[in-house]
């Protein structure tokens, strides 16, 4: 045990990303629970609570199978692991803390978790607490924490230290508020905030790394030196998986294809390739944000199952010889996709050419290789070879087949004389949960325990302590 | 002999069947070979058969180690945070936390304000800033990359407090340190890019974000270079521009910081370790603190240049490197080839004009400058056109010849001088005559002395011409045409006193013989080509009237042809070599004009070097014009190579 320096204190690790929230116990290799960061919010008069449950059960049946399966297996998974009697015995739910599902706050109700938010409710708005890697909606974030600790992990926060990950450009104010939340609301005995880039490097076993993280809403490149983020080298832009999915939507629109999410479909029958769908729709008025989310899910799924990155430069001729891939939208429309499936992820590498109808902000996007190169270039010259030798790829948006090959190819074709080594975990979970994993490793190290912010320190110095201890 | 069974018997144990079976293998039946029987026979398998052994079961008798879930405190912390973990049940309740020993921090020499004022002042630094630097050094354990990244003077209030918290025991930064205009909380999400910007200047971030790679690689100061470029700034860049705080923070390069740190450390060490007893230790410490800022800056500048080479440059460098290595490796081979070539050209002498008489005659003719008997034979040489010999490369080989073996070429041609050049008798002609007089020398002497040797034994009849020739050829040894043009003034004494080499006597066949029999045989492999050359020249395979003169000339012609053929072969090879080199140079694309000029330059020098060749060329005019060209070309070949080597 001493050889790997582990000393597990049953710490909790929480990583709230733009798309996914991951929660679990330090020392484990996968988060116990992964659920969408988005929360549903229904604005209602305090007493109008009845009838909702009935709606709920009816709707759940209409969920598409995979979603149901996913959420079911998710909760099973947790139950099983807890029952297995891992290093932590099942914890009784904290006495004063009621599970937050449908907990009435102010004049409305929050819905958290995959099963809850993807369930149609006429007035449910979908919102995300995170924007640009920063916490924007604190109420929603609290809902997420509640859901993670009380509903998913079902633990007593007063018994576990908590480590959370934050973006490298998080602000002092936000971290102080997070600290307050951890100590004031949940009474964690100890707390720590770690940079997600550092954690990703950690998970990759590298003290120095150039962490390339492409998630749902943004892509960032962060140089890490011996566990410290180099702030001057942080490069990021709001080009992530969501933009790509949105481009897919635009492509569909351009070819006059309607993307109808599952919740609107009552009945469909098979149609010939490329023909208009034969579908009966439900009359389900929904909020635009809900509709958008459901539509995006379809698009994400399309993108994840069909799209691919050209391994070297994009060459329309070569690509047209590649096999086509069929895909069927929820309404039954199906088609074989050829070059289109290469064009979408190409945006990551050449936004100027492939991003259609860009907004003014999007016009300034640069390709990922350039972003990486610029980041490394802004670091000390003696450190650059190390950075290029330790490029770590993380985030769901890097999971396109061929992405790593292409990036490697691109980085080598930029004129410089460094040797580029790309670390891209082949394991999907590892790629998506890089920062969580790093937190899990770090919080189970014996040498780490002197870094926790303790309750006592918090009481003495206030929430400001986080800016002193977590750099 | 005691077997295992005997032992068993002694100990009254039951004999083992198994062992016995092994001991008595079945006999090989007759009529079947031993090898075959070994394969098919009913014998012991060659593969050892082991009974599978199973791992011993878990030893349950051993008592399980007790683990307990218990709270612990970590002495590395100054609060008494109690965490819980599983650990082996302790025997010693006061055992120290296992990871305490890893809590190490570096030892930084600190200074007092008095020391600062008396020793450490620097016009560029205030004491506040210096202690800020010290705090950062302590905070980040001298990780300079991080220190430089976080360095921001004046520091933000929160940063200052954090540092103070961390380095509680250190100098107190004076309270009037200017506060920073902005609070982090009000910043837009994009703030961090700007935070970075405020550290190293706005243009830097903008450049790194929006900078075009190609331009940014060009200059050492990539940042400023691209910032001035017309690249559209990226979103982040433009935001950062908007958010950047207007107080221009003092920028300190890593070299500035390190320089300050090491200077102070050195001074403090010197002060503190005044003791003579510590001299060695002190010297060691001081040397470990040596830091040459300018050298570091220079080094990084060079590194930057090194790293921003374009692929073409890298490629060129690599090609040059490879080329250099290739040259190194081939040098021997080339010299060997060269020697072969020389030998080849010298061997011409072997087949040279037959007897001394004819040679002498030829020489005389040449010197006399008259039409002479030679003319008739030479005429064909005017029209010698071997296919493709007109290509400059053909001449390449000839050039090789020209370098040192020219005199051999001279010999047979000298008569033509007499014919064409009439009485002018150029030195070339003279030298030609010289070799003409002494054609028999067959020893392949080192190039320098060849001709001197050759020309040394002049026959009495050609004394004068011999002297001339001596002069000509000796000067041609020096490979300087100007020398050759010195004319037949004074015979070079050096050559004159050379000991006469043992001239090879022609073997006299006893009895009567046909002259045609004495025709120098041609190597069978070359025969066909020589013959086809003869056909081109309109000559029969054998002279119709083999008089002594005719035979001598015939031999000359034949050996000329052989030489020509050999030279052509060589030239073809060199030409293809040249082509390869040229192609490579073309692909490198570096100053082709420069190298081409060098090519011509070396061609000229080559021509110059090839005295004999040049003089020959000028004397023979059209005849071997090809050859003359080649002279330049051949020696031109190594031209670019040499140049590259030099460049390297
Ligand atoms: N296999 C995949 N191929 C392509 N894109 C994927 C894949 N899996 C997830 N994504 C995309 O990655 C994005 C989510 O990134 P991720 O790093 O998992 O979350 P976060 O935004 O929380 O960082 C989504 O836009 C999703 O569509
Ligand atoms: Mg992420």
TrEMBL record, chain A:
InterPro entries: Actin, Actin_CS, ATPase_NBD
Coiled-coil regions, chain positions: none
Pfam families: Actin
CDD domains in UniProt: ASKHA_NBD_Arp4_ACTL6-like
PROSITE patterns: ACTINS_2
Cleavable signal peptide: none
Residue segments, region Disordered: 45-99
Biased composition (Polar residues): 59-76
Similarity field: Belongs to the actin family.
Full protein name: Actin-like 6A
Protein's organism: Mortierella hygrophila
Automatic annotation (TrEMBL), chain B:
Regions of compositional bias (Basic and acidic residues) in chain numbering: 181-190
Primary residence: nucleus
Keywords: Chromatin regulator, Nucleus, Transcription, Transcription regulation
An example Gene Ontology CC term for this record: Swr1 complex
Tagged with keyword Nucleus: yes
GO biological process: chromatin remodeling; DNA repair; negative regulation of transcription by RNA polymerase II
Record's protein name: SWR1-complex protein 4
All residue ranges annotated as the DAMP1 SANT/Myb-like domain in the record: 97-166
Region Disordered: start-end pairs: 177-249, 378-509, 585-648
Organism: Mortierella hygrophila
Positions with biased composition (Gly residues): 606-615
Family membership noted in the UniProt record: Belongs to the SWC4 family.
